[in-house]
Amino acid sequence: MSVLLQILTLLGAVTLFLYGLSLLSGGLQKVAGDGLRSFLARMTSNPFKQIITGISITALIQSSTATTLMVVSFVNAGLLLLGQAIGVIMGAHIGTTITSWIMAVFGFSFNMADFAFPLILVGFLLLQNKKNQRNRNIGEIIIGFALFFIGFAQLRATAQSLITPESLGFLNSWTQLGAGSVAIFLVIGIVLTVCFQSSAATMAIIMILITTGVIPFRLAAAMILGENIGTTIAANIAASVGNTAAKRTAISHTVINTFGVCWVLCIFPLWLKLVGSIVTMFGLPDPNTADLTDTANAEAISTSLLYSVCTMHTLFNVVNTLLLVWFIPVIVKIVTWIFPSKEEEESFKLKYISAGPVGTADMALSSVKMELVRYGDICREDLAYIRAAVEAKSQEEFDEANEKLVKYEEITDHLEHEIANYLNEATRTEMSHAGTIRIRSFYRIIGEMESLGDSGESIGKTMARAWAHKQTFTEEMLRKLDRMLVLVDKAYEAMHFNLETPLVQLEGITNAEDAEQNINAYRDTLREEHLSNVEKANYPYETGAFYMDIVNALEKMGDFIINISQAQISAKPR
Predict the structure, then answer these.
(1) Cβ atoms within 10 A of the Cβ of 180, count?
(2) What one-character DSSP code corresponds to residue 177?
(3) CB–CB of 318/94 below 8 Å?
(4) CA distance linking residue 543 with residue 300, whole number of Å
């Protein structure tokens, strides 16, 4: 096999490894579903619970990045305070080390690749069950687990075949520089993790390099320190387009690990001895003095080096967490200083889903729902400017209110476009049947909310024509329009409640239906009164025409509002 083909095979093995891990993580997240988010929101009352929560979730979904992004979305939503999120992230650092132990135990001690293809068969059969989404998700987990170990086995085999005296000689020039070598391999650890966007892939490479004698334990430890910095980059990239809360949460991830790397480097020789003493307690050779050329003890030495890497990874994150958990308020102040609040930030940008989809599409839906609640509240704010436009006593007052109506129409258009783009991105990945139904309801909701923005602008145009024709409403007309606006506001109130209430707790939408019926009934009453007033010539016909145009527009807003509640209840599991 040519060197070029071996390199391509190596890259393919890494890709298969990462794809398997992605399937495994995605399937686990789908199976966990809403319960995972509820657990995260509930189990954060103190630092100990926060750390346990981070460990548990990351161990369950096998992705510290997914846990971190979930935490970012919860901070955005106001469900977690920044200090609570930092505690969860610390726990995620410990939880992610479990993947390394799985690779060490099952990837080296046992050849799991031998069982991979039967597992793929089982997973494939489960995926064919179109009626049971849970079975399909379990099938995805099994296939991801199998591909993970097939990729790992091929990565290990190909890497070993690429190790030649020439390649060893090249690396030897980098391993004899004392502290300089430590710095070089620390940077290599960072770069590999950033390139792969996976600390697990970097740990797999470190295990292969150390067990084949390419690098000593000292430099493997340096790469692990680099990996712990590199793994924070994904969260910062995701949060770079987010709001201040997202950026603070993501940068805290970096502050924690960078601080840990710095203090470990200050006592690096002592740290290596500590790891070595822990490993020797279990009857294995000291990794600091291990020599794989000692053929008589080669197997024990290889095992010692392998478990030393995992011990180093776990010990670093556990000790760093135990040190920093007492300084969470200080970390909060640091990241707040790095990203101060910007009072001039645009108030109508996406707030809860600006950091990108969280993990799987299903897990992103709660963030979309919170964005829709906020979107509805913004539409409701427009009602105040409709009232101001209708009740304006001068051209200047009307122009000021009408300018707001035009602005809010642009805002609702923008929010609809941004949320739709997010939903389009979320649907690129497979989701549960219930998730698909919710996505459809969300599309309908944002369309109705955009129509509410259009209605405000339309009423502004009607009033502009009335001012141009010098038509003014009587006090009686204004009083009745005010009553109509109150009824529409009541409909908004019901809509807000129905959107905010979890689907499992939403019994029905009678509140919204009653509000809509009240609007229709009052519109019918005003229509009959209008016809009577026109017959009696109580006011000019043209004035009455503008008046009824606004009444009908407000009634149409009631239709859009009830449609939103209907779309929400339609997604409720049957």
Answers:
(1) 10
(2) S
(3) yes
(4) 95
Terminal Cα-to-Cα distance of the chain (whole angstroms):
57
pLDDT at 339: 81
Taking a C-beta distance cutoff of 8 angstroms, is the pair 439, 367 a contact?
Answer: no
**Cα pseudo-dihedral 327, 332, 333, 338, rounded to 10:** 130
Which has the closest alpha carbon to 155: 13, 362, 315?
Answer: 13
The Cα-based distances of 464 to 233, 294, 331, 381, 551 in angstroms read: 53, 92, 54, 20, 16
Three-class SS of 101-155:
HHHHHHHHHCCHHHHHHHHHHHHHHHHCCCCCHHHHHHHHHHHHHHHHHHHHHHH
Residues near 428 by Cβ (< 8 Å), separated by ≥ 6?
A: 361
Sole residue written with tokens 């009587």:
474
Q: In whole angstroms, give the CA distance from residue 465 to residue 266.
A: 75
Instruction: Specify whether the CB–CB gap between 485 and 383 falls below 8 A.
Output: yes
Residue 545 tokens, joined = 């025409």
What pTM value is reported for the model?
0.58
What's the CATH code, domain 361-570? 1.20.58.220
Confidence of residue 357 (pLDDT cuts 50, 70, 90): very low
Where does the chain hold its CATH 1.20.58.220 domain(s)?
361-570
Q: What is the spatial distance between Cα 252 and Cα 572, in angstroms, rounded to a whole number? A: 37
The torsion defined by the Cα of 293, 297, 298 and 303, in degrees rounded to 10, comes to -130
Handedness of CA 186, 273, 278, 298 (dihedral sign): positive
Residue 384 burial (CB < 10 Å; 0-12/13-18/19+)? middle
Rounded Cα–Cα distance for residues 242 and 238 (Å):
7
Coil, helix or strand at residue 544 = helix
Provide the 8-state DSSP code for 243: -
- By percentage, how much of the chain surpasses pLDDT 70? 73
The answer to whether 495 and 377 are in contact (CB under 8 A) is no
Contacts of 190 (CB under 8 A, 6+ apart): 226, 227, 229, 230
Residue keyed to tokens 């919710």: 438
**Distance from C-alpha of 353 to C-alpha of 498, rounded to nearest angstrom:** 20
Amino acid 491 reads A
Q: Kindly state the tokens that stand for 90.
A: 């610390």
Measured CA to CA, the distance from residue 558 to residue 474 in angstroms comes to 24
Q: How many CB atoms lie within 10 A of CB 393?
A: 8
Ramachandran region, residue 561 (left: φ > 0; alpha: ψ -120 to 50; beta: rest): alpha
Summarised one tens digit per residue, pLDDT across range 482-498 is 999 999 999 999 999 98
474 by DSSP, 3-state: which?
coil
User: What beta strand segments (E) does 168-310 contain?
Assistant: none
CA 358 from centre of chain: 2
Query: How high is the pLDDT of residue 293?
Result: 61
Reported as a pLDDT band with limits 50, 70 and 90, residue 4 is: low
Helix orientation angle between 47-61 and 64-77, rounded to the nearest 10 degrees: 130
Long-range CB pairs of 234-242 (<8 Å, 24+ gap) are 234/65, 234/68, 234/197, 235/65, 235/68, 235/69, 235/72, 238/69, 238/72, 238/355, 238/356, 239/72, 239/355, 241/354, 241/355, 241/356, 242/72, 242/76, 242/354, 242/355, 242/356
H or E stretch covering 160: helix 133-162
More confident residue, 196 or 565: 565
The tokens describing 260, both together, are 């840990």
How far apart are alpha carbons 315 and 320 in whole angstroms? Answer: 8
